[in-house]
Amino acid sequence: FVMERKTRVKINRKKVMLAKLRKSCSCTPKKLKNFVMDFLPVLRWLPKYQCKEYIWGDVMSGLVIGIILVPQAIAYSLLAGLKPIYSLYTSFFANIIYFLMGTSRHVSVGIFSLISLMVGQVVDRELLLAGFDLNDDAPPTLGDGSLQNDSQSNTTAFNLTIAGMNAECGKECYAIGIATALTFVAGVYQVLMGVFRLGFVSMYLSESVLDGFATGASLTILTAQVKYLIGIKIPRSQGHGMLVITWINVFRNISQANLCDVITSAICIVVLVTAKELGDRYKHKLKFPLPTELLVIVVATLVSHYGKLNEVYASSVSGAIPTGFIPPKVPRFNLMLRVAVDALPLAIVSFVFTVSLSEMCAKKYAYTIRANQEMFAVGFCNIIPSFFHCFATSAALAKTLVKTSTGCQTQVSGVISAMVVLLVLLFLAPLFYSLQKCVLACIIIVSLRGALRKFRDVPARYHVNKVDTLVWVVTMSASALISTEVGLLVGIVFSMLCVVVRTQRPRTALLGQIQDTSFYEDDSEYENLCSVPKVKIFRFEAPLYYANRNYFLKSLYRLTNLDPNLEAAIRKKSEKKEKQHLKKGDHTTANGLGIRETTLQLVPKQIDFQALVVDCSSISFLDTTGVNTLKEILKDYKDLNISVLLACCNPSVIDSLKRGGYFGKDFGSMQEMLFYSIHNAVQFAKDQQ
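The line above is the sequence of Sulfate transporter; the predicted structure tokens follow.
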């Protein structure tokens, strides 16, 4: 039977583009209202807020997240290389802005360990280039209230002048200047990606790449906190190989470990891990998670203050945390140029984590999000706070899971969390002066449990898919051993290469017929399949394009046990010899056979088929090289009196073959070369025989 293709209506693309442009440029009150409502989704859902039904869950989850957020904000400031006050600012503004612009009801946006690490690496690098000492306990340099005028101060002043900062700006000022410039540029990238609808970029970050990146970065975070755990003073390593260099420095200086910090760290880790394990085991009985981090911080601060651990045992403490807000300041343009490249991976990672978590929550609770609006939301969560001394933010998995488990219904819970942070900012921040840094390091390390547990999943991952496991290992190793940005790039490139290699060397098979059916399957995989006499059925499980052309031909020749080019060459050679013997008048060949017998011998015994059926069901597309390859085998096999039949081609493959002239100029022989099923092609081949 013949199936007729539908005639496509030709679309005047110019008219369509002009109509869309005219529609988008028009401005009506209704359109303006919809634009504002789409840009600020809170205007749509807040008037419909069901106070009696939602308020208790939102208040409860907001308070719990706020209580968790405060110690995490202070702790993650170590990762970002900034003072704790800036982490609190970031947590406050991110929650408020996402409340206004986000489309997810459950996502918790704020500081995130991986993002803080990426910010901290850029800050450390720029501080080093500016001539500052990365040691946290280094004496203050120019602008920190010191009147030193040594070479170090001069170097710092010179570099700051080059960077466009005034000479009175010290280490802390310069660090937050770099962080805000980086955050602003990352936000601009995210907004531009939203404007140009470049959300598809996230598709190139597979689950294996993201998991490997998170695990590798977690190892880096863990390594960076070891010096705080044991209270040693080593320089903060920068550049590639930071993990290895840091561990070498740790073991070299292990004899200088502060016994007070070691004991405190051991106690805190035991308490935190035990509380987390108990919380996971009995989470179905608990209405909300235990605020273990807050309790540990409160107790540790009281012990440190009244035990005078800083004065007596030289234990490193957080120091003064000011209250209130610093006046807003525009991020410096010349610093933006220095960090423009670093902001790109930061923007992509921040967006991908936010959208993936938003989609996860939307799927679980049966509502929809707008990925493009999420990109705008996270972009403005970076742009606006950068004027208020904040650094980059993202959705955080752990806090999002806590939010959903404590009854969160809408982003009103984010406002409640922001109010808790505001309370700390205005009144409670100075109380954390005596908090030991080793306690903050313990909170960070225990929060990495989820990412580090991915190592336990490697055997199961390997059992499911070996290639994905290899992608995970490569991404994780590169992120940990080289750097996080390079690790992400290596993971993306390697995963793409794996896809290319898979299409370059796909599965190929000869098919046999399932007895008494019209179905055919791989002869090497299934028992009791019947081979079709005089017919070979070849399956190629990938698109046919320039990169796998040679593999296609080699596999075809190997499985059919016939290379038509080689066979044609042998025949020509035999015919040439026969002609030479005929000219000499000798009716016998060199083998002592007659001409008639020699003619019969021209077709070797291994050619046991007269038709080749190519199963194209797995060939999703053809490029020019693919079309030419099929034309080539059509011609080569035709010279050996073997017909080539194509089966199960999709419409795009058929169109490519038509445009490439595979069926001839008038497509007259198309019905004898193209079939809608393998069985139809086999039946046709039998009839031809």
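Note on the example: Confidence is low (pLDDT under 50) at residues 138-167, 599-605. Strands lie at 109-110, 394-395, 508-514, 520-522, 529-530, 534-540, 609-615, 643-647, 674-675.
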